Backbone:
């Protein structure tokens, strides 16, 4: 008799997004501060999870720098952020805060951005209030929306 059972390699997980978001809300409402390290790829997210952090941040600067060799000045599209974030989210069951830059356009684009990242599995989303062209949040001379 042939065994047709397929075994998944260790590390492949199924994300229960609603449970992850619920746990993250509980973490946020608690009294204990916690650190949220940044992940730039799937292996860094796995390492964050293995070192017992409670959440992680998918950093826009990190994606631009490590995946595309670009500065963090608003050059990545929503499609690119979703594609890279999807790979990272698939590697872990931790809640992720996703950096959505300035929302990739006007109010309707921001609505679409939120919808896309929510469907992707983000536990939270960070939006910057900079005018275009944006600058890395760590740099001086940024202009923000009035």
Residues:
């Amino acid at each position: 008799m042939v065994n047709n059972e397929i075994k998944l390699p260790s590390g492949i997980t199924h994300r229960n997004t609603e449970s992850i978001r619920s746990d993250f809300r509980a973490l946020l409402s608690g009294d204990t501060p916690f650190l949220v390290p940044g992940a730039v790829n799937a292996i860094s997210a796995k390492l964050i999870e293995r070192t017992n952090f409670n959440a992680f941040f998918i950093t826009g600067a990190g994606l631009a720098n490590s995946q595309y060799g670009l500065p963090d000045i608003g050059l990545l599209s929503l499609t690119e952020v979703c594609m890279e974030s999807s790979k990272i989210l698939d590697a872990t069951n931790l809640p992720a805060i996703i950096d959505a830059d300035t929302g990739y356009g006007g109010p309707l684009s921001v609505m679409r951005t939120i919808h896309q990242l929510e469907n992707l599995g983000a536990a939270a989303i960070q939006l910057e209030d900079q005018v275009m062209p944006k600058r890395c949040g760590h740099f001086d001379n940024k202009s923000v929306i009035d």
Remarks:
- The first strand starts at residue 38 and ends at 39.
- The beta strands are 38-39, 56-58, 96-99, 124-126.
